[in-house]
Amino acid sequence: MEDFSTKKVTLKNFFLLWFGQSLSQLGSSMTSFALIIWAYKQQGTVMSIALLSVFSYLPCILISLFAGAVIDRFQKKKIMLICDTIAAMCTICAFTAISFGILQVWHLYFINAISGVMNAFQSPVSKVVITLIVPKEHYINVSGLRSLSDSIISVFNPVLATTIISFFGISTVFVIDLMTFFVAFLSLLLLVKIPKSITPEMNNFTESNLINESLQGFNYLKKNIGFLYLMLFMAGINFLAAMAFFSVLPVMVLSRSSGNEQILGLVNSAIGVGGIVGSLLVSIIKPTNNKVKMIFVSVALSFLLCDIFLGVGRNPYIWVLAAFAGNLPIPFLNAAENSLLQLKIPTDILGRIFSIRGSIQFITLPIGYLAGGFLADKVFEPLMSNSTKAQSLLGHIVGSGKGSGMAVIFVITGILGFTLSIISYKNKFIRELDNC
Question: What is the reported pTM?
């Protein structure tokens, strides 16, 4: 039995890692936000901003298919240190270029692509490291703390970035980002102890083919089909979320509030606050043994409370309440899903599974973005503006005028997300994951 002193040491490792990485993430988030502002001022188009995300996201998805084999093969600390260093070098390149007045938007596309590749390794390896240094009974609570830091960063990084830019200039944001990097890097290098978990057959890189090792992750999912079904379910949920919440929400709120940016700010703040409260609850409550049920209940509640009420709501009070209530269950979802994988999947293959999971679950996000924009601009907004039949049929539900077509999208995604959650929960292979 593991004694208390050992457990205390492993939690100390986690807190050191969590603090350093969260601090570095705050610095990186401020830099990303500052560069979005800079890019928009240079070109003034939404597409130029969207491409920043595309160039960051697509390389991450593609590389994730093979990143897991590398993560499982090599020492986790070295991978994290290398990824952090390359990401910092990207920041230095952008800082240097903007200081000499030679930075171009296409430079940022290239830099974001490199950062996306690093994130393909950094995101899954951090989850594997948590599995190695945290006692199993604390997986859900630890996930709540990570969600808490993510939510706090999402709320405060735009405020901090814009304030610093206004008073000290964009160069100061880069300096702060690099300072937070050094704190995280030195903390990880000198203070955090991560056990080595390389299996004997994987010590020699030439002994097996990287592609074959990556395929071992797919073979594992083929034999444990419940995990694959769960990932496909999350891919569908992410598609619906991207189609409405991530792409349509800002435009709908601005359209239905006569362009009031303060109201949009309140809605965005409510999203972050909901995540913070949910993360705190996850961190302090006693973990449940029925993690599968927690996943599907969280998703169903999120779509029911958020999307549907955002669609039928016609004033800022309902929007703020819906944004808060719908995002409060998200940390429960993330904690249950992560801990389920950490508890049930062997450590020597966990990196590959987390990487494959990232590719499967998030490949639908860019598709959802495109679908949301198309449906809003070409289908539902024109429909609610030009069709008297649609207005009489749907007007008493979502109202009329500009933004009502986008509200219809929210109602549809809310119903679909809730229904998909109820149906998928009945899948026997998924429900057996708690017992496997």
Answer: 0.76
